[in-house]
Write a structure and sequence with these properties.
Its EC number is 1.4.4.2. Keywords: Mitochondrion, Oxidoreductase, Pyridoxal phosphate, Transit peptide. It is found in: Mitochondrion. Its cofactor is pyridoxal 5'-phosphate. It catalyses: N(6)-[(R)-lipoyl]-L-lysyl-[glycine-cleavage complex H protein] + glycine + H(+) = N(6)-[(R)-S(8)-aminomethyldihydrolipoyl]-L-lysyl-[glycine-cleavage complex H protein] + CO2. This protein has about 800 residues and is an alpha/beta fold. Among the domains are: about 120 residues, Aspartate Aminotransferase, domain 2 (3-Layer(aba) Sandwich); about 120 residues, Aspartate Aminotransferase, domain 1 (Alpha-Beta Complex). It is about 35% helix and about 10% strand. It is built from 26 helices and 21 strands. The chain is globular.
Amino acid sequence: MAMCLGIVKSKKKTFLIASNCHPQTIDICQTRATGFDINVVVSAAKDFDYSSGDVCGVLVQYPGTEGEVLDYAEFVKDAHAHGVKVVMATDLLALTTLRPPGEIGADIAVGSAQREYKRLMPGRIIGVSVDSSGKPALRMAMQTREQHIRRDKATSNICTAQALLANMAAMYAVYHGPAGLKAIADRVHGLAGTFAHGLKKLGTVTVQELPYFDTVKITCADANAIAEEARKNEMNLRVVDANTITVAFDETTTLEDVDKLFKVFSGGKPVDFTAESIAPEVSSSIPPSLVRDSPYLTHPIFSMYHTEHELLRYLHKLQSKDLSLCHSMIPLGSCTMKLNATVEMMPVTDPKFANMHPFAPIDQAAGYHEMFDNLGDLLNTITGFDSFSLQPNAGASGEYAGLMVIRAYHKARGDHHRNVCIIPVSAHGTNPASAAMCGMKIVAVGTDAKGNINIEELRKAAEANKDNLSALMVTYPSTHGVYEEGIDEICRIIHENGGQVYMDGANMNAQVGLTSPGFIGADVCHLNLHKTFCIPHGGGGPGMGPIGVKKHLAPFLPSHPVIPTGGFPLPEKTDPLGSISAAPWGSALILPISYTYIAMMGSQGLTEASKIAILNANYMAKRLEKHYPVLFRGVNGTVAHEFIIDLRGFKATAGIEPEDVAKRLMDYGFHGPTMSWPVPGTLMIEPTESESKAELDRFCDALISIREEIAEVENGKADAHNNVLKGAPHPPQLLMGDAWTKPYSREYAAFPAAWLRGAKFWPTTCRVDNVYGDRNLICTLQQASQVAEEAAAATA
């Protein structure tokens, strides 16, 4: 929806949604539309009206929410004739059988993506670039920390994506391959067909005649009675209304399950046939015009690993390319890469958690709901808030949800005009993008020489906008890694001028047990459970960003159209906030990780963790200050849980950039810290409480050794353009090549520190060409020779 608006440059503000989309999809679009000032109209697709000339896009679902498969070919042509973009929400398994959205003419598919509008796509794109040896190299293109560069002009506020979950789905496709997936799809469709055929033989209900893939729609006299009978047989059916039921099948369904359904729909009476006996009579319900005949998953990887042993080896090969906490500390500032203990991870594989459907009836998920309640109470205690929503499933989603709660609160009080959001320039990069998505007008305030928010500038901004002030977005400790002494005064200033305080919870690892957002004066705060509370998130997921609020904001927390999330009665004439995520409690399966962590640590353990995280950061800052300037400190000369070292001077003295240092750290066996953010030309380091002094020293030793390498460039002992930093990283294929033309030795390139002799993590590529990757957005993996030829041609 946002892309459609961007494509027409916000000149058309109406978005049409087909009524046969999932209710949670419709609800999310309606929630998000308010921030963009989009007029959402929901109706049957056949009734879409383009006569206003104001329609930027339409959303249809394929197959529909009740299982119907419609031919959208003429619909798409009609939309395009009126200059309207078509978005199609789809089912990936169904597309192994059905004609895909791209062939029908859809402009954007949810579940896969067309490439024409790639520069307006939200989130991240992985493309193919080349390294300095001409070898293909995958890298994140365009959207790499895009929010921090474009701020409120960013295409999205996405920070943590669900990459781990996407990889699970990808490996499913790798293991089964195109033929295997087609077999699964045919079996699922066959089970649905057998069920529909059997119901027709029973004659007790009416089966929808439209084509379907995996979901059968049934009209009956009493849908609730049939659903109750199914529950007695441990099956949940979807009741659409009093006379309509839908039944969905998947790869876990068996013929025995279909027989149980026949018994349910016969009122418990014996059935004189079985699913197995009638299955041969069933034919596909999909018309020839909608049958897919084009190839898919054509990359060789999808046809190589079809046994468990082969897949195991492939996964281990991929794993060996990842530098993880198994190898060394990962000192990314603001990302809090701490220990994810094995015992915390155990519940994730428990079938009682893992096999629960997000829309399972509440009385069938009592254990989950007990955990939701307990976790919410624990988080309230930790943060000083009164209520929590567990729905936002990323930190950036939490930012958006928190601001929308503030927006709803103002509207309920009649303050519809309050739309100004004050954001310090030091705030996290997703903050301005989140505020823009909520339709807020952003007023930036600067920092003082010490990196703290300029309180007088903030006071003037708040007073100048007091009639329209909605919120302040603030991070504490600050993004610069210090405890701002004036944070309580900052909160008072905003409240005195009619605004609410949104606190970014990314730095909660320095607050837990020592202070809290509620105590400081914030009204709402999101928590990165995947940072402070131990959910693994390397590579971009999974994430959780629940929001805590003070009592006056609790009635405006996110709701859900399918499963009630509880909450409070809303004031009269108030529109509820609606859904932020498709599932009522976000990525609920990973919540046991944080719950286990908090329960095991207890109050004393959590407080101690915060203290150790702060101690570790200050120890590292003290060791490194003789070699690198430490950019910001608090009034006591200390930092919080992270700190920034300044590399800007080395560009003038040695031609060395932060990227050179980060890449050289790979040769030492470390992941680079956060680079050039929040201050360009710097590295931000966060050690967390999980690292021992020995590991902190090892990382400091690596940076000190790199400082000596920079000094060799500065004093002329090393070439300014051909030195060990500019050449980094040094993968085996470079070191073992027949020719070695560099002015430093292979041995020093590979083993600059003694500890590397015992265990060495080898980089897989040479320095990647960032400019080539951004200018040549290749989202499919080409042959190495083709990429090398294109790179050579581009250079020439």
